Every structure is written in C-alpha cells, then in structure tokens.
Amino acid sequence: MKKKKIEIMDTTLRDGEQTSGMSFSEDEKLTISKLLLKELKVDRIEVASARVSSGEFKAVSKIIDWARSENLENKVEILTFIDNGISIDWMKKSGAKVQNLLSKGSLNHLKHQLKKTPKEHFKDVDLAIRKAYKNNIKTNIYLEDWSNGMKDSKNYVIKFLNFLKNQPVDRILLPDTLGVLNPYETSQYLKEIIGTFPGIHFDFHAHNDYDLSVANTLEAINAGCSGIHTTINGMGERAGNTPMASIVAAIKDFLTGYTINIDEHALYNVSKLVSTFSGFRIPPNKPIVGEYVFTQTAGIHADGDTKKNLYYNNLLPERFGRKRKYALGKTSGKANIKKNIDELGLKLSEENLKKVTQKIIELGDKKEKVTAEDLPYIISDVLNRGNIHNKIKIKSYFLQHMKNKKPSADIKIEIDGKIFSEKGTGDGQFDAFMNALKKLYKTNGYKLPTLTDYSVTIPPGSNSDALCETFITWKNSNKEFITRGLDSDQTVSAIKATEKMLNII
C-alpha cells in the first residue's frame, strides 16, 4: 500500500516569532530559512507577515533572493491581509510568490472584529485572491478561528468552503487559533470537512493551550489532512504551536501509513540554533531536544541498559544526532557511575567504585550538581591520589572595567610548564578574558571549543552573599560537554569553569 505524503509547513519565523518578547534579525531569519529547507528538508516555510516593518521586508527580500537561487521560492510563504491589495503590492516588491491570506473562519470573529456580513467578507476575499492571481502570486487561505467556527457557526464555515472550492486557491489552512480543540473534536470536525470537500488540500494548524497540539495534529492526519503546521521548539503566542521534533517523531513511530520529508538527524542542531537566536530556552525535559531527555538517572535503568537494553524505547538518541547519557547524583548507583568512568577511559576496582559512588551520593544529598567532567577530580579526592595534573593553569589575570571604556583583561596561562600572556577587550569582564584567551590560543596554534551556553545559579540553600555556580556548555567538533566553576565572584567562577575546559580538551 502506498503511503500518503504529509506536507510540513514550518511557521517558526512567523507564528513562532509571536512568542512574547522576541524577534529575529534579518540574518537570523535567512540562516533559519536555509536550515529549515536545506537541512531539515521542510516542505514549506512561513517567514513573515506582510506590512509589519521595514526590517521584515528586508528579511523577506533576502530569503526570497536566496530561495530563488536554489529554486525554492515557491516554498516560502507570507501571511497577508484583506487590505485592498496593499499586502500584494508589498509581496511584489519583496519578490515573494505565495500568500497565506488571513480570513475569518468563525461568524463570531467576522461580526465582532470586521463587522461585516458573510456576503461582504466573501467579496473581499474574492478580490484579494484575484489580485494575487493577476500578479502571479499563489494563494493559500487561513480560516482564522476555524475551530470555534465549527463549534458555534458550522453553517457559516460550510458556506465559506463552498465559496472557496471554486476559487484559485492551492490550500485551505484550518487553524485551532485559540487551542480549544481536544483530539476527539479535531478528528470529528476534520472528517466532516474533508468528507464534504474531498478534493481540497487542507492543512491543520494547532496551538498548544491545553498541551494537546501534538495529539490533535496526529488526529488531523488520521482524519485526512494533507498538511500540518509546526514551529521549532513549539515557539508561538501563549502556550505556543505544535513542536516540530515531537510531531515528527510521533508520525514516524505511530502513523505507519504516512510519510514525511524531515531529516530527524538535523532536528537537535536546528533546535539549539533557534534557541540561541531567539533567547527562548528549551526546557531540559522537552521531548527529543531537551538536555535531559536521553539521560538515565536511576541506577537500575543504567543497569538495565547493559542487560538487553531493557530501558530503551524507539526514541533512540542517535536518530536525532544525540547520545545517551547517564546522570550522576544520589540515585545514580554504581551502574551509572561505571558507564561515565568507562566513557572517560578510566578503570577502577570494585572497592574504589563503591567509594566514588558513595561520594557522589553524598554530594547529591547536599543538592550539588555533578557532571561527568567532575569525575576525575572526585576520584582523585576520594582515593587520596592527589595526582590530577592540570597541564594548563591560569596563572594570573587582571580584569578592568571603567566607565566609558570597554572591559579589558590581561592574562597569563601556563601550558606544559611554559608561560604565555595576552590582552583582550570585550563586552564584559569574562568576554574580555575569553577574547584574550582566544588570541593567545590562536597565536600559538591551539584551538578552542565554542561556548554555546552560559548559566549562573546560586546553589540551593545558599544566599546572595555566598557562592555562585557557573555552568558553561562547550562544543568541540561533534562533542558537547559542560564544565562548572564555583566561587563567590561570578566572573571568577566562570574562569574556573574555563580552566576545567582547557584541561579537558
């Protein structure tokens, strides 16, 4: 039996950008567009709303110029409005070729927002579609608030669709604008619509207000929808939209009669990049892309992984360009710790393994965080070896920050017994330190990993006058790791975390 192809339209750059307090730059939008279409292999992308700003216009123009060079311009879509052709003129100037026209999918919205009759609205829609057609612009159309339209004014929705079926429209987009549907309603409404209009291409656009966007989108596919809408990391207004990674994994594992284009292996890297650009942090327990979702914490689970993979499911981390990890803490047990020690290439006797395990449990009881990179130091401390030898030592640093001057750093580093010195400036004291370090390493033929994340916390039970922890995430080739620094001064704790990194690489 031939599988049905499901189109995925990603709207991170339009609907996702409506996440409170965030905005993408022109270059960020272009970079994300390239990743979505070329790396993830998304079928279509919605990148902007027409007429919003001059910056938005410049971003769209850049995206279209690139897309045209790759023969992808028909995969780039713009949200447009019924505005006497102003949106179409905007699109013509930008070079965009596909509009997603916003219309009213519920009688309630039509009456109270536009204050028009269905007949008047249909006439306006007709004029907007015709103008697009005359200018060689393709039309998809949103029925805004469609879900409430089906609940409260179904006759209006059916009448609207009867009007649209005779229009030069490629796709009709059915949004659950306020995220009010449950899976049963989604299935019921879409089966009714698709059964009544079998020749039309329908997309389903879910919102996650009740945390049901993935479930509703699965039901939409089963009901016969030909396309679905997503955002990276589930970004979007209020509770967000359908997260791409989650729905892609669910389709591939649960809907065997359907096929999608998405390259799962690229999901994690794209999610991380979008998170960096947007400042919208990925929850650590977010399926597929969260920091801890492929981390076994309980010792019994790690033990089971060595015995016919008893705690594995189909969501293998390698599918998504990731790797299984084993957490270190009070519930770890010997199995977790042994896996981390093996990963580091270290060997311990059974007796010494018990001692290290007990120490990590004690640290966990104190609510201290332990990473794999801390293990050599813990082992050295517990076994009284005192033989952890840092090949690289930060011998001294002088940090200066004066009004109306960029922060500066003067550093001395010892590498294999040889002293090197360098100066640098930056946007802050630690940035100045890192810039000096980068110059020093580059001058001497060494390579530093990329700093990908930086977080500062006050350890539980502490206070603002006590210690702070700095966790820095580094990426070196394909390996990602975290180092921790602890000090009463935030900048010093970051420098300590950096010194650990220098000795790890």
Q: Could you characterize what this model shows?
A:
By secondary structure, the chain is an alpha/beta fold. The chain folds into three domains: 4-278, Aldolase class I (TIM Barrel), CATH 3.20.20.70; 295-382, no CATH class; 392-504, Alpha-isopropylmalate synthase LeuA, regulatory domain (Double Stranded RNA Binding Domain, 2-Layer Sandwich). Helix content is 40%, strand content 20%. The protein has helices at 26-39, 54-69, 86-94, 107-114, 118-134, 146-152, 154-164, 183-196, 213-223, 244-254, 267-278, 299-305, 333-343, 350-365, 375-382, 429-443, 490-504; strands at residues 4-5, 7-10, 44-49, 76-80, 98-104, 138-144, 171-175, 202-205, 227-230, 258-259, 295-296, 325-326, 392-400, 408-415, 418-425, 450-457, 468-476, 479-487. Strand 7 (171-175), helix 8 and strand 8 (202-205) form a beta-alpha-beta unit. Helix 1 (26-39) runs parallel beside helix 2 (54-69), helix 6 packs across helix 7 (154-164) and helix 8 (183-196) runs parallel beside helix 9. It starts with a strand and ends with a helix.
Outline the secondary-structure elements:
Elements: E1 4-5, E2 7-10, H1 26-39, E3 44-49, H2 54-69, E4 76-80, H3 86-94, E5 98-104, H4 107-114, H5 118-134, E6 138-144, H6 146-152, H7 154-164, E7 171-175, H8 183-196, E8 202-205, H9 213-223, E9 227-230, H10 244-254, E10 258-259, H11 267-278, E11 295-296, H12 299-305, E12 325-326, H13 333-343, H14 350-365, H15 375-382, E13 392-400, E14 408-415, E15 418-425, H16 429-443, E16 450-457, E17 468-476, E18 479-487, H17 490-504
Parallel strand pairs: 1-10, 2-3, 2-9, 3-4, 4-5, 5-6, 6-7, 7-8, 8-9, 11-12
Antiparallel strand pairs: 13-14, 14-15, 16-17, 17-18
